[in-house]
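Archive entry. Fields below.
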Amino acid sequence: MTSYFPPRASIRGILGLLATFPGPGRTAEPETIVLASTTSLQDSGLLAHILQLFTRETEIEVHVVAQGTGQALATASHGDADLVLVHDPDAEATFMAAGHGLTRTEIAWNDFIVVGPNDDPARIAGTQDAVAAFTAIAIARAPFVSRGDKSGTDALEKRLWRAAGLDPVTIGSGWYRDIGGGMGAALNAAAAMEAYTLSDRGTWLSFGNKAGMKIVLAGDCRLLNRYDVIQLDPRRHPEAKQAPADRLATWLGAPEGQAAIGQYMVGGNPLFHPEADPKTCNGTVTRGLRTP
Amino acid sequence: MSDLFDAARDAIGLVFGLDAGLLRVIALSLGISLTATAAATAIGLPIGAALSIFRFRGRSLLILLANALLGLPPVVVGLALYIVLSRSGPFGFLGILFTPAAMIIAQFLLALPIVAALGHRAMESVWRDYGDDLLVSGASRRQAIPHVLSIGRRGAMTASLAGFGRSISEVGAILIVGGNIAGYTRTMTTTIVLETSKGNLAFALALGVVLIAISVLVSACAFAITATPRRSRLPEAA
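PREDICTED_STRUCTURE:
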Protein backbone atom coordinates (compact mmCIF):
# COMPACT_ATOMS: atom_id res chain seq x y z
CA MET A 1 0.00 0.00 0.00
CA THR A 2 1.04 3.53 -0.59
CA SER A 3 1.64 5.77 2.35
CA TYR A 4 -1.18 8.12 3.12
CA PHE A 5 -1.04 11.36 5.01
CA PRO A 6 -1.39 11.59 7.94
CA PRO A 7 0.00 8.25 9.21
CA ARG A 8 -2.68 5.80 10.26
CA ALA A 9 -1.40 5.55 13.81
CA SER A 10 -1.99 9.24 14.34
CA ILE A 11 -5.45 9.04 12.79
CA ARG A 12 -6.27 6.24 15.19
CA GLY A 13 -4.93 8.32 18.05
CA ILE A 14 -7.07 11.28 17.06
CA LEU A 15 -10.16 9.11 16.67
CA GLY A 16 -9.44 7.75 20.12
CA LEU A 17 -9.46 11.29 21.47
CA LEU A 18 -12.72 11.96 19.68
CA ALA A 19 -14.31 8.92 21.31
CA THR A 20 -13.61 10.34 24.76
CA PHE A 21 -15.91 13.30 24.09
CA PRO A 22 -19.35 13.43 25.51
CA GLY A 23 -21.47 13.38 22.38
CA PRO A 24 -25.05 14.52 21.94
CA GLY A 25 -26.57 11.27 23.19
CA ARG A 26 -25.57 11.48 26.82
CA THR A 27 -28.09 9.06 28.25
CA ALA A 28 -25.77 6.93 30.34
CA GLU A 29 -24.22 9.95 32.03
CA PRO A 30 -25.50 11.79 35.09
CA GLU A 31 -28.38 14.12 34.38
CA THR A 32 -27.32 17.58 33.31
CA ILE A 33 -29.22 20.83 32.94
CA VAL A 34 -28.23 24.13 31.37
CA LEU A 35 -28.66 27.15 33.64
CA ALA A 36 -28.65 30.48 31.79
CA SER A 37 -27.33 32.95 34.32
CA THR A 38 -25.46 36.20 34.72
CA THR A 39 -21.77 36.95 34.77
CA SER A 40 -22.01 38.50 38.25
CA LEU A 41 -23.08 35.21 39.82
CA GLN A 42 -20.35 33.29 38.01
CA ASP A 43 -17.46 35.77 38.25
CA SER A 44 -18.05 36.22 41.98
CA GLY A 45 -17.68 32.45 42.43
CA LEU A 46 -21.14 32.03 44.01
CA LEU A 47 -22.49 29.55 41.45
CA ALA A 48 -19.43 27.31 41.59
CA HIS A 49 -19.75 27.23 45.39
CA ILE A 50 -23.45 26.50 45.74
CA LEU A 51 -23.91 24.28 42.66
CA GLN A 52 -21.24 21.90 43.86
CA LEU A 53 -23.33 21.39 47.03
CA PHE A 54 -26.46 20.88 44.91
CA THR A 55 -24.73 18.35 42.65
CA ARG A 56 -23.40 16.41 45.62
CA GLU A 57 -26.90 16.18 47.06
CA THR A 58 -28.87 15.40 43.88
CA GLU A 59 -26.31 14.07 41.36
CA ILE A 60 -27.69 16.59 38.87
CA GLU A 61 -24.91 18.39 37.02
CA VAL A 62 -25.53 22.04 36.23
CA HIS A 63 -23.91 23.59 33.16
CA VAL A 64 -23.79 27.32 33.73
CA VAL A 65 -23.84 29.54 30.67
CA ALA A 66 -23.00 32.96 32.13
CA GLN A 67 -24.25 35.85 30.02
CA GLY A 68 -25.69 39.29 30.60
CA THR A 69 -29.32 39.12 31.74
CA GLY A 70 -30.64 40.20 28.33
CA GLN A 71 -28.69 37.48 26.53
CA ALA A 72 -29.51 34.85 29.17
CA LEU A 73 -33.24 35.51 28.71
CA ALA A 74 -32.79 35.35 24.93
CA THR A 75 -30.97 32.02 25.26
CA ALA A 76 -33.86 30.64 27.30
CA SER A 77 -36.51 32.01 24.97
CA HIS A 78 -34.79 30.19 22.07
CA GLY A 79 -35.14 26.99 24.08
CA ASP A 80 -31.43 26.59 24.75
CA ALA A 81 -31.59 26.57 28.56
CA ASP A 82 -33.52 24.61 31.17
CA LEU A 83 -33.61 27.25 33.91
CA VAL A 84 -32.87 30.98 34.24
CA LEU A 85 -31.26 32.90 37.12
CA VAL A 86 -30.99 36.64 36.38
CA HIS A 87 -31.32 40.15 37.83
CA ASP A 88 -33.27 42.64 35.74
CA PRO A 89 -36.85 43.00 37.03
CA ASP A 90 -38.08 44.84 33.91
CA ALA A 91 -36.60 42.38 31.39
CA GLU A 92 -37.84 39.48 33.51
CA ALA A 93 -41.36 40.93 33.51
CA THR A 94 -41.26 41.14 29.70
CA PHE A 95 -40.00 37.55 29.53
CA MET A 96 -42.86 36.38 31.79
CA ALA A 97 -45.43 38.40 29.86
CA ALA A 98 -44.27 36.75 26.63
CA GLY A 99 -45.21 33.40 28.15
CA HIS A 100 -41.75 31.85 28.43
CA GLY A 101 -41.69 31.59 32.20
CA LEU A 102 -43.93 29.66 34.56
CA THR A 103 -42.80 30.97 37.95
CA ARG A 104 -40.37 33.68 39.02
CA THR A 105 -38.95 33.53 42.52
CA GLU A 106 -36.49 35.83 44.27
CA ILE A 107 -33.68 33.77 45.78
CA ALA A 108 -30.98 36.29 46.71
CA TRP A 109 -30.12 39.97 46.75
CA ASN A 110 -27.28 42.36 47.31
CA ASP A 111 -26.71 45.84 45.98
CA PHE A 112 -25.17 47.83 43.21
CA ILE A 113 -22.44 50.33 43.94
CA VAL A 114 -20.86 53.18 42.03
CA VAL A 115 -17.09 52.78 41.81
CA GLY A 116 -14.70 55.44 40.62
CA PRO A 117 -11.16 56.75 40.73
CA ASN A 118 -9.61 57.45 44.14
CA ASP A 119 -9.39 61.21 43.48
CA ASP A 120 -13.16 61.28 42.75
CA PRO A 121 -13.31 64.26 40.32
CA ALA A 122 -17.13 64.47 40.49
CA ARG A 123 -17.02 64.68 44.32
CA ILE A 124 -19.64 62.04 45.01
CA ALA A 125 -17.88 59.98 47.68
CA GLY A 126 -19.91 59.84 50.86
CA THR A 127 -23.21 60.81 49.21
CA GLN A 128 -26.07 58.32 49.03
CA ASP A 129 -28.24 59.56 46.17
CA ALA A 130 -27.36 57.63 43.01
CA VAL A 131 -29.35 59.91 40.69
CA ALA A 132 -27.70 63.04 42.10
CA ALA A 133 -24.32 61.34 41.74
CA PHE A 134 -24.97 60.55 38.07
CA THR A 135 -25.95 64.19 37.54
CA ALA A 136 -22.70 65.29 39.23
CA ILE A 137 -20.70 62.97 36.95
CA ALA A 138 -22.40 64.47 33.88
CA ILE A 139 -21.80 68.04 35.06
CA ALA A 140 -18.14 67.29 35.78
CA ARG A 141 -17.91 65.48 32.43
CA ALA A 142 -15.97 62.81 34.31
CA PRO A 143 -15.30 59.60 32.36
CA PHE A 144 -18.06 57.02 32.88
CA VAL A 145 -17.90 53.45 31.58
CA SER A 146 -21.19 51.91 30.49
CA ARG A 147 -21.64 48.15 29.99
CA GLY A 148 -23.84 48.77 26.97
CA ASP A 149 -24.70 45.06 26.77
CA LYS A 150 -28.35 44.95 27.91
CA SER A 151 -27.36 43.19 31.10
CA GLY A 152 -29.23 43.74 34.36
CA THR A 153 -26.57 46.22 35.46
CA ASP A 154 -26.76 48.04 32.13
CA ALA A 155 -30.54 48.25 32.40
CA LEU A 156 -30.33 49.79 35.89
CA GLU A 157 -27.70 52.28 34.71
CA LYS A 158 -29.99 53.42 31.90
CA ARG A 159 -32.88 53.75 34.37
CA LEU A 160 -30.74 55.93 36.65
CA TRP A 161 -29.84 58.26 33.76
CA ARG A 162 -33.52 58.49 32.84
CA ALA A 163 -34.36 59.28 36.47
CA ALA A 164 -31.78 62.07 36.34
CA GLY A 165 -33.45 63.40 33.18
CA LEU A 166 -30.24 62.98 31.20
CA ASP A 167 -29.46 61.15 27.99
CA PRO A 168 -25.75 60.34 28.15
CA VAL A 169 -25.71 59.16 24.54
CA THR A 170 -26.50 62.68 23.31
CA ILE A 171 -24.69 64.74 25.98
CA GLY A 172 -21.92 62.30 26.81
CA SER A 173 -19.58 62.86 23.91
CA GLY A 174 -16.03 62.25 25.13
CA TRP A 175 -16.80 61.16 28.70
CA TYR A 176 -19.59 58.55 28.40
CA ARG A 177 -17.92 55.40 27.12
CA ASP A 178 -20.06 52.44 26.09
CA ILE A 179 -17.65 49.49 26.08
CA GLY A 180 -20.16 46.76 25.16
CA GLY A 181 -18.77 44.19 27.56
CA GLY A 182 -19.34 42.27 30.77
CA MET A 183 -18.93 43.61 34.30
CA GLY A 184 -15.30 42.53 34.51
CA ALA A 185 -14.47 44.14 31.18
CA ALA A 186 -16.18 47.34 32.35
CA LEU A 187 -14.20 47.37 35.61
CA ASN A 188 -10.94 46.77 33.73
CA ALA A 189 -11.83 49.64 31.39
CA ALA A 190 -12.80 51.91 34.27
CA ALA A 191 -9.50 51.17 36.04
CA ALA A 192 -7.57 51.98 32.87
CA MET A 193 -9.51 55.19 32.07
CA GLU A 194 -9.91 56.40 35.67
CA ALA A 195 -13.63 56.36 35.06
CA TYR A 196 -16.76 55.82 37.13
CA THR A 197 -18.95 52.81 36.55
CA LEU A 198 -21.92 51.03 38.09
CA SER A 199 -21.11 47.56 39.41
CA ASP A 200 -22.83 44.84 41.36
CA ARG A 201 -21.15 44.41 44.74
CA GLY A 202 -20.33 40.71 44.23
CA THR A 203 -18.25 41.21 41.09
CA TRP A 204 -16.49 44.23 42.61
CA LEU A 205 -15.50 42.44 45.83
CA SER A 206 -14.06 39.46 43.97
CA PHE A 207 -12.45 41.58 41.23
CA GLY A 208 -8.66 41.37 41.12
CA ASN A 209 -7.65 44.58 39.29
CA LYS A 210 -9.00 47.38 41.47
CA ALA A 211 -5.90 49.54 40.93
CA GLY A 212 -6.69 53.14 41.87
CA MET A 213 -10.44 52.59 42.29
CA LYS A 214 -12.80 52.60 45.24
CA ILE A 215 -16.49 52.46 46.06
CA VAL A 216 -17.74 56.05 45.90
CA LEU A 217 -21.43 55.48 46.50
CA ALA A 218 -23.57 52.77 48.07
CA GLY A 219 -26.76 52.47 50.04
CA ASP A 220 -29.35 54.10 47.75
CA CYS A 221 -32.55 52.04 47.80
CA ARG A 222 -32.66 52.26 44.01
CA LEU A 223 -29.43 50.25 43.95
CA LEU A 224 -30.94 47.09 45.41
CA ASN A 225 -30.12 44.10 43.23
CA ARG A 226 -32.43 41.10 43.33
CA TYR A 227 -31.75 37.77 41.69
CA ASP A 228 -34.70 35.74 40.48
CA VAL A 229 -34.89 32.14 39.35
CA ILE A 230 -37.37 31.59 36.51
CA GLN A 231 -38.80 28.18 35.68
CA LEU A 232 -39.75 27.77 32.06
CA ASP A 233 -43.30 27.05 30.96
CA PRO A 234 -43.33 23.44 29.67
CA ARG A 235 -46.10 24.26 27.18
CA ARG A 236 -43.85 26.85 25.56
CA HIS A 237 -40.60 24.95 26.08
CA PRO A 238 -41.38 21.22 26.05
CA GLU A 239 -37.72 20.37 25.39
CA ALA A 240 -36.54 21.92 28.70
CA LYS A 241 -35.66 19.33 31.33
CA GLN A 242 -38.47 20.22 33.66
CA ALA A 243 -37.93 17.79 36.57
CA PRO A 244 -34.24 18.45 37.33
CA ALA A 245 -34.73 22.19 36.67
CA ASP A 246 -37.57 22.22 39.22
CA ARG A 247 -35.32 20.50 41.74
CA LEU A 248 -32.66 23.17 41.38
CA ALA A 249 -35.19 26.01 41.55
CA THR A 250 -36.74 24.49 44.67
CA TRP A 251 -33.36 23.83 46.25
CA LEU A 252 -32.24 27.43 45.72
CA GLY A 253 -35.23 28.69 47.67
CA ALA A 254 -35.12 25.93 50.33
CA PRO A 255 -33.19 26.27 53.62
CA GLU A 256 -30.10 24.40 52.30
CA GLY A 257 -29.77 26.56 49.21
CA GLN A 258 -30.51 29.77 51.11
CA ALA A 259 -27.91 28.89 53.74
CA ALA A 260 -25.34 28.12 51.04
CA ILE A 261 -25.96 31.53 49.43
CA GLY A 262 -25.67 33.37 52.77
CA GLN A 263 -22.51 31.56 53.80
CA TYR A 264 -20.53 32.27 50.64
CA MET A 265 -17.71 34.70 51.44
CA VAL A 266 -14.85 36.30 49.59
CA GLY A 267 -12.11 37.67 51.82
CA GLY A 268 -14.37 37.45 54.86
CA ASN A 269 -17.19 39.43 53.22
CA PRO A 270 -20.54 37.85 52.46
CA LEU A 271 -21.38 38.75 48.84
CA PHE A 272 -25.06 37.83 48.63
CA HIS A 273 -27.96 37.90 51.06
CA PRO A 274 -30.50 35.09 51.13
CA GLU A 275 -33.94 36.24 49.99
CA ALA A 276 -35.34 36.38 53.55
CA ASP A 277 -32.70 38.85 54.85
CA PRO A 278 -34.34 42.25 55.45
CA LYS A 279 -33.25 44.68 52.78
CA THR A 280 -31.55 47.70 54.26
CA CYS A 281 -30.68 50.88 52.45
CA ASN A 282 -30.36 54.54 53.48
CA GLY A 283 -30.03 53.18 56.99
CA THR A 284 -33.57 51.80 57.05
CA VAL A 285 -35.28 48.56 56.15
CA THR A 286 -37.21 48.65 52.90
CA ARG A 287 -39.94 46.26 51.94
CA GLY A 288 -38.91 45.62 48.39
CA LEU A 289 -37.32 46.93 45.31
CA ARG A 290 -38.16 50.37 44.12
CA THR A 291 -37.24 51.18 40.59
CA PRO A 292 -36.47 54.78 39.81
CA MET B 1 6.16 45.32 34.20
CA SER B 2 5.49 43.61 37.53
CA ASP B 3 2.43 42.00 35.93
CA LEU B 4 4.67 40.44 33.29
CA PHE B 5 7.01 39.18 35.99
CA ASP B 6 4.11 37.74 37.99
CA ALA B 7 2.79 36.12 34.82
CA ALA B 8 6.09 34.38 34.11
CA ARG B 9 6.27 33.11 37.69
CA ASP B 10 2.62 31.97 37.63
CA ALA B 11 3.15 30.21 34.31
CA ILE B 12 6.06 28.21 35.67
CA GLY B 13 4.05 27.37 38.77
CA LEU B 14 1.10 26.29 36.64
CA VAL B 15 3.13 24.03 34.39
CA PHE B 16 5.10 22.33 37.13
CA GLY B 17 2.27 22.30 39.65
CA LEU B 18 0.17 20.19 37.26
CA ASP B 19 -3.04 21.62 38.68
CA ALA B 20 -5.87 19.13 38.01
CA GLY B 21 -8.33 21.81 36.88
CA LEU B 22 -5.81 23.28 34.47
CA LEU B 23 -4.88 19.87 33.08
CA ARG B 24 -8.55 19.28 32.34
CA VAL B 25 -8.78 22.60 30.51
CA ILE B 26 -5.63 21.82 28.52
CA ALA B 27 -6.90 18.32 27.67
CA LEU B 28 -10.20 19.75 26.48
CA SER B 29 -8.50 22.46 24.39
CA LEU B 30 -6.21 19.94 22.75
CA GLY B 31 -8.96 17.37 22.30
CA ILE B 32 -11.32 19.81 20.59
CA SER B 33 -8.71 21.49 18.41
CA LEU B 34 -6.94 18.27 17.39
CA THR B 35 -10.26 16.66 16.51
CA ALA B 36 -11.35 19.67 14.48
CA THR B 37 -7.95 19.79 12.77
CA ALA B 38 -8.01 16.06 12.03
CA ALA B 39 -11.42 16.40 10.41
CA ALA B 40 -10.36 19.50 8.48
CA THR B 41 -7.21 17.66 7.37
CA ALA B 42 -9.07 14.50 6.34
CA ILE B 43 -11.42 16.54 4.16
CA GLY B 44 -9.41 19.66 3.34
CA LEU B 45 -6.22 18.00 2.10
CA PRO B 46 -7.92 15.75 -0.48
CA ILE B 47 -9.89 18.81 -1.63
CA GLY B 48 -6.66 20.79 -1.92
CA ALA B 49 -4.96 17.96 -3.82
CA ALA B 50 -7.96 17.46 -6.09
CA LEU B 51 -7.98 21.17 -6.92
CA SER B 52 -4.39 20.90 -8.11
CA ILE B 53 -4.88 17.62 -10.02
CA PHE B 54 -8.26 17.87 -11.72
CA ARG B 55 -9.21 20.40 -14.37
CA PHE B 56 -12.90 21.23 -14.38
CA ARG B 57 -15.27 24.14 -14.75
CA GLY B 58 -15.58 26.17 -11.58
CA ARG B 59 -12.16 25.07 -10.35
CA SER B 60 -10.75 28.60 -10.22
CA LEU B 61 -13.89 29.71 -8.42
CA LEU B 62 -13.40 27.02 -5.75
CA ILE B 63 -9.75 28.00 -5.32
CA LEU B 64 -10.76 31.64 -5.01
CA LEU B 65 -13.44 30.68 -2.48
CA ALA B 66 -11.03 28.66 -0.31
CA ASN B 67 -8.57 31.54 -0.31
CA ALA B 68 -11.24 34.12 0.41
CA LEU B 69 -12.44 32.09 3.39
CA LEU B 70 -8.95 32.20 4.93
CA GLY B 71 -10.16 35.31 6.67
CA LEU B 72 -13.43 33.83 7.93
CA PRO B 73 -14.26 35.74 11.14
CA PRO B 74 -14.60 33.28 14.07
CA VAL B 75 -17.30 35.33 15.75
CA VAL B 76 -19.46 35.19 12.61
CA VAL B 77 -18.97 31.43 12.30
CA GLY B 78 -19.88 31.09 15.98
CA LEU B 79 -22.99 33.21 15.61
CA ALA B 80 -24.20 31.44 12.47
CA LEU B 81 -23.60 28.05 14.06
CA TYR B 82 -25.37 29.20 17.23
CA ILE B 83 -28.48 30.11 15.24
CA VAL B 84 -28.37 26.82 13.31
CA LEU B 85 -27.80 24.64 16.40
CA SER B 86 -30.19 26.50 18.71
CA ARG B 87 -33.32 24.59 19.76
CA SER B 88 -35.25 27.08 17.66
CA GLY B 89 -32.91 26.54 14.68
CA PRO B 90 -32.96 23.89 11.92
CA PHE B 91 -30.52 21.54 13.71
CA GLY B 92 -31.82 22.16 17.21
CA PHE B 93 -33.00 18.55 17.42
CA LEU B 94 -29.37 17.46 17.73
CA GLY B 95 -29.18 19.14 21.13
CA ILE B 96 -25.47 19.89 20.80
CA LEU B 97 -25.42 23.63 21.50
CA PHE B 98 -23.23 24.32 24.56
CA THR B 99 -21.39 21.00 24.13
CA PRO B 100 -17.86 20.19 22.94
CA ALA B 101 -19.37 18.78 19.73
CA ALA B 102 -20.57 22.23 18.70
CA MET B 103 -17.11 23.65 19.39
CA ILE B 104 -15.48 20.98 17.22
CA ILE B 105 -17.83 21.85 14.35
CA ALA B 106 -17.04 25.56 14.72
CA GLN B 107 -13.29 25.01 14.66
CA PHE B 108 -13.61 22.53 11.82
CA LEU B 109 -15.40 25.16 9.71
CA LEU B 110 -12.67 27.70 10.50
CA ALA B 111 -9.80 25.31 9.79
CA LEU B 112 -11.20 23.70 6.62
CA PRO B 113 -10.59 26.60 4.18
CA ILE B 114 -7.10 27.11 5.60
CA VAL B 115 -6.13 23.45 5.15
CA ALA B 116 -7.72 23.28 1.69
CA ALA B 117 -6.19 26.54 0.40
CA LEU B 118 -2.69 25.93 1.76
CA GLY B 119 -2.93 22.26 0.81
CA HIS B 120 -3.79 23.24 -2.76
CA ARG B 121 -0.88 25.65 -2.92
CA ALA B 122 1.52 22.95 -1.71
CA MET B 123 0.18 20.18 -3.98
CA GLU B 124 0.21 22.37 -7.08
CA SER B 125 3.99 22.19 -7.37
CA VAL B 126 4.02 18.47 -6.52
CA TRP B 127 1.57 17.82 -9.36
CA ARG B 128 3.65 19.96 -11.71
CA ASP B 129 6.77 17.90 -10.89
CA TYR B 130 5.31 14.41 -10.55
CA GLY B 131 1.92 14.53 -12.27
CA ASP B 132 3.03 13.23 -15.67
CA ASP B 133 4.99 10.37 -14.10
CA LEU B 134 2.01 9.35 -12.01
CA LEU B 135 -0.31 9.34 -15.02
CA VAL B 136 2.19 7.47 -17.19
CA SER B 137 2.60 4.81 -14.48
CA GLY B 138 -1.09 4.03 -14.98
CA ALA B 139 -2.69 5.83 -12.05
CA SER B 140 -5.98 7.60 -12.63
CA ARG B 141 -6.24 11.19 -11.44
CA ARG B 142 -8.31 10.03 -8.48
CA GLN B 143 -5.75 7.38 -7.56
CA ALA B 144 -3.03 10.02 -7.78
CA ILE B 145 -4.46 12.06 -4.86
CA PRO B 146 -2.92 9.96 -2.05
CA HIS B 147 0.39 9.76 -3.94
CA VAL B 148 0.56 13.50 -4.37
CA LEU B 149 -0.28 14.06 -0.71
CA SER B 150 2.38 11.55 0.31
CA ILE B 151 5.06 13.23 -1.79
CA GLY B 152 4.06 16.68 -0.61
CA ARG B 153 3.49 15.65 2.99
CA ARG B 154 5.63 18.46 4.40
CA GLY B 155 3.54 21.07 2.69
CA ALA B 156 0.48 19.13 3.73
CA MET B 157 1.68 19.16 7.33
CA THR B 158 2.17 22.91 7.20
CA ALA B 159 -1.38 23.33 5.90
CA SER B 160 -2.67 21.09 8.66
CA LEU B 161 -0.69 22.93 11.34
CA ALA B 162 -1.99 26.26 10.10
CA GLY B 163 -5.48 24.85 10.59
CA PHE B 164 -4.52 23.70 14.08
CA GLY B 165 -3.08 27.12 14.87
CA ARG B 166 -6.37 28.72 13.91
CA SER B 167 -8.33 26.22 16.01
CA ILE B 168 -6.33 26.30 19.22
CA SER B 169 -6.02 30.08 19.28
CA GLU B 170 -9.54 31.20 18.42
CA VAL B 171 -12.02 32.19 21.08
CA GLY B 172 -14.81 34.05 19.31
CA ALA B 173 -16.63 31.03 17.93
CA ILE B 174 -16.26 28.57 20.81
CA LEU B 175 -17.29 31.15 23.38
CA ILE B 176 -20.62 31.52 21.59
CA VAL B 177 -21.40 27.89 20.78
CA GLY B 178 -19.68 26.33 23.80
CA GLY B 179 -20.93 28.73 26.45
CA ASN B 180 -17.68 28.54 28.47
CA ILE B 181 -19.16 26.03 30.92
CA ALA B 182 -16.74 25.20 33.75
CA GLY B 183 -15.28 21.71 33.42
CA TYR B 184 -17.25 20.99 30.25
CA THR B 185 -16.71 23.54 27.49
CA ARG B 186 -14.09 25.79 29.09
CA THR B 187 -10.87 25.78 27.07
CA MET B 188 -7.56 27.62 27.40
CA THR B 189 -8.69 30.62 25.37
CA THR B 190 -12.10 30.97 27.03
CA THR B 191 -10.44 30.65 30.45
CA ILE B 192 -8.10 33.48 29.50
CA VAL B 193 -11.07 35.66 28.55
CA LEU B 194 -12.82 34.78 31.81
CA GLU B 195 -9.79 35.44 34.03
CA THR B 196 -9.21 38.75 32.27
CA SER B 197 -12.79 39.74 33.00
CA LYS B 198 -12.26 38.81 36.64
CA GLY B 199 -9.32 41.21 36.71
CA ASN B 200 -6.79 38.41 37.27
CA LEU B 201 -4.53 39.78 34.55
CA ALA B 202 -1.28 38.11 35.58
CA PHE B 203 -2.95 34.72 35.88
CA ALA B 204 -4.64 35.19 32.49
CA LEU B 205 -1.30 36.03 30.91
CA ALA B 206 0.29 33.01 32.57
CA LEU B 207 -2.35 30.82 30.96
CA GLY B 208 -1.48 32.50 27.66
CA VAL B 209 2.15 31.55 28.08
CA VAL B 210 1.12 27.93 28.75
CA LEU B 211 -1.12 27.98 25.66
CA ILE B 212 1.71 29.20 23.46
CA ALA B 213 4.03 26.53 24.88
CA ILE B 214 1.49 23.81 24.13
CA SER B 215 1.00 25.11 20.61
CA VAL B 216 4.75 25.04 19.99
CA LEU B 217 4.95 21.53 21.41
CA VAL B 218 2.23 20.24 19.09
CA SER B 219 3.94 21.75 16.05
CA ALA B 220 7.27 20.25 17.08
CA CYS B 221 5.70 16.80 17.47
CA ALA B 222 4.02 17.10 14.08
CA PHE B 223 7.30 17.96 12.40
CA ALA B 224 9.07 15.13 14.19
CA ILE B 225 6.48 12.65 12.88
CA THR B 226 6.80 13.74 9.23
CA ALA B 227 10.49 14.60 9.23
CA THR B 228 12.57 11.77 7.78
CA PRO B 229 11.38 8.17 8.12
CA ARG B 230 9.53 7.77 4.81
CA ARG B 231 11.90 9.70 2.60
CA SER B 232 13.08 6.39 1.14
CA ARG B 233 9.66 5.82 -0.42
CA LEU B 234 9.84 8.91 -2.58
CA PRO B 235 11.25 7.19 -5.65
CA GLU B 236 8.61 4.46 -5.40
CA ALA B 237 5.80 7.00 -5.45
CA ALA B 238 7.43 8.88 -8.28
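CURATOR_NOTE: The two ends of chain B are 56 Å apart (CA to CA).
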